[in-house]
Design a protein that fits this description.
The protein has seven helices and five strands; from the N terminus they run ααααβαβββαβα. By secondary structure, the protein is mostly helical. A hairpin with a 5-residue loop joins strand 3 and strand 4. Helix 2 packs parallel to helix 4 and helix 5 packs antiparallel against helix 6. The chain is flat and about 85 Å long. The relative contact order is 0.10.
């Protein structure tokens, strides 16, 4: 601008270089997830809507960790990465605490019970075991790995068990079992009004009781 004061121009430009004047897009995204979390905590919302809001928070943090955090580790300094990591860890602690201490009891008040395998009575365990043998066990295939075999590909965002398998000669091998989605869905729908908390917990209890073909 003609006749402008160079010192004043430099002063104005220096303002736009002050990080305090700008919102960090990653921290803003984390703050947005907190607002979604607040919807899950809003008791005026229907109970299943609150569960949905909580699942959105977890899914978004999963995606952020998989996609954005690797980029940040390459583009930004360690301090920024650790700041984001700390914020995410704290947020997920709050999510898990709220789920266990508030949302699961609220679901129970509406007739939806989230249970561990160890919480089931004898008859319920028998039904789960039978369902496991009929619908899930046939789809399980242990992936062994040892010095002669490379580490198997483990799909992301899946549930897996690390187990020991023993062949007919008594030889033990370390293996990984992927819990198929079909089985997870069927267990969750197994009994109206009852959810098996953490599918791997139920599978861990019953998988040890049955013989899985060794690889």
């Amino acid at each position: 601008m003609s006749g402008s004061d160079p010192k004043a121009s430099r002063s104005i430009l220096s303002l736009f270089q002050d990080p305090a004047l700008f919102l960090d897009r990653d921290l803003s995204l984390i703050e947005f997830q907190r607002r979604v979390f607040n919807e899950a905590r809003d008791e005026s919302n229907p109970i299943l809507e609150r569960v949905k809001f909580l699942s959105i928070v977890v899914r978004n943090f999963d995606e952020f960790e998989m996609v954005r955090m690797p980029q940040i580790s390459e583009e930004s300094g360690t301090a920024h990465f650790e700041k984001l990591r700390s914020e995410i860890v704290q947020a997920m602690r709050e999510v898990r605490s709220y789920l266990r201490e508030s949302l699961i009891p609220a679901l129970a008040q509406h007739g939806i019970h989230v249970l561990n395998y160890s919480d089931l009575d004898t008859a319920e365990r028998s039904r789960i075991d039978a369902h496991f043998v009929q619908s899930i066990l046939p789809a399980l295939m242990p992936l062994a790995f040892d010095p002669k075999r490379p580490f198997p590909h483990i799909p992301n965002l899946g549930l897996h068990l690390a187990i020991l398998v023993r062949d007919s000669k008594g030889m033990e091998r370390f293996a990984c079992v992927h819990l198929v989605r079909r089985g997870e869905i069927e267990i969750r729908r197994f009994e109206t009004g009852t959810l098996l908390d953490e599918i791997e917990e139920g599978a861990r209890q019953v998988v040890t009781q049955f013989e899985i073909p060794a690889p």
